[in-house]
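User: Structure tokens for both sequences below?

Assistant:
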Amino acid sequence: MGEFDAIRPYNDAEVPSVLARLLGDQAFLHILTHFSFPRLAGPCGWLLKPLIAYGLRRKCQGISTVAQFQDRIAPYVDRTIERATDGVTYSGVERLQKGSAYLLLANHRDIVMDPAFVNYAVYHAGLPTPRIAIGDNLLQKPYVSDLMRLNKSFIVHRSITGRREKMEAFRLLSAYINHSIRTDCRSIWIAQAEGRAKDGNDRTDSAILKMFHMSRKDQPFAEVIAGLNLTPVSISYEYDPCDQAKARELFIRASTGSYFKAPGEDDSSIALGITGYKGRVHINFAAPISAEFADTKLLAAEMDRQIIAGYRLFPVHYLAYALWTGQDPALQVPSAAQLFPAAELTKAQAQWDKRLAACPREHQPYLIEQYANPVRNQYRIKAGLPL
């Protein structure tokens, strides 16, 4: 058994057996049947499942490598993106050079779609897609684990509770990330913090930066980071399909001091995040960090500065900021009307009014905050003020 077998993505030699396992997984076929035929899946599921399995076998014929699998599913991913967005744009992807590997550290708003949009940008630029960090809390079902590891995902063990076991898991994760970039020359995507930024306040957890160094403590921190091509990535959604659920969670946390997920809540968030309307989406790749930072907190502050500066603000962000009670008096923030054409603003106002109307009154401050925080943060950076 290899050092990284417990967490790494599947390799090409494993693809045929994993696909065969997936095509025989009844839970996987059940989900696909309900997704493809939501009205007929209940009464006719017994008939539809074999048809779904037959269709999948035909589509999977000839797939023997991870690259072939990604090529085969790319049109479906593109169609899903096209149906749920008003277009995806990206900038800075030309900074990623063939033959080099990068540690792509991104803000985190959606469980599945954040790395999917980064993959979309990289794939369509003709570059190898990165390996994706995913928490083991999302891999409770075997078919989910198989699908994700088939699509270049590797596992971050978050459910471990013992301190010694946690430290060993982080060391192994650190070793794998370093091995992937330095030895395999394969890029990595990882979120800047554990969990989504539900209030729109994107911040880099310095503990994640410290983790990158854990397996190479014999080298200076700055030297290790320099060898990883650490690259800030900003993922901007015009509208978050999960914004109402996030507002509800924030309200409950503020009211009771805690929040406990219901069974299946992550599955619902994943489904809504994939299929829900997002408006426009933009992905920005900043230049890899070249300055040396001996301290993780200073590096985290620089990552925050670059990720927030690269975030694209849409009209809805300014509309929300205008309603926000947390406006920063030190900032000169223009109104949406000063920045966007009338037709674009009218469309955004209608969508924003619709979202506010659908949100319970007591949850609305938290919905507003999600869209307003990126404005505050970006204008503080422009003004040279600390976040």
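Moving on to the next sequence.
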Amino acid sequence: MCNLYTQKKSPDVIADLFRAQIPANFNAGPGEVYPGGRGIVVREDGGERIVEAMTWGFPMRLKFMKPDSKPKPVNNIADVGKYPWKFIAGKPEHRCLIPLTGFCEAEGEKGSKTRTWFSLKETEVFAWAGMWDQSNEWGAVYSGLMTNCNEFVRPVHNRMPVLLHEEDYDRWLRGSLEDVRAFQERCFPDELMQLERTAEPWSRRRATDAAPEAAM
């Protein structure tokens, strides 16, 4: 799963790179993004791309949870045939691009895991295939599509985000359910990726961050 990523560029830069419009009252900036936190996405509205701030993770309530318990954010999409994705996966109006500069996985022994960052060699900002919707709990929310890892990521994790080439953006935003499934089955090229292993503890999180939920 991907439970941490970075987006280090300003909203104006993101808007320029993705040829999108940005609202005057935009309220999200660059930094690390955790499940349940605010992130930047690019989606289409009326045929034009717009930059929007949303919560990373669809709210999910488990059967054993108390009525007043805070929902868990489902921030990864493992199977587009499962709830709630099966209701929106085939609808282009629920697709989005998630701009990022790197995604992180935990590596090492239990209790002493550190952060290993993955990014692309040729471009600092790239896109993760996402879906979004309006929720009663948190307003606009989004989640990222996951796939089996390529050989470059495999030593660290067996899953990875569905990364998009720039020429894929329109097909992802406007394509069919078959296109969605094709993207999830595609393996991103190993040679385009790079990693940075750090000594930074994986468990370092802000106290206000919500706990991640397993992918669905």
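User: Anything stand out in the second?

Assistant: The helical segments are 11-17, 169-174, 177-185.
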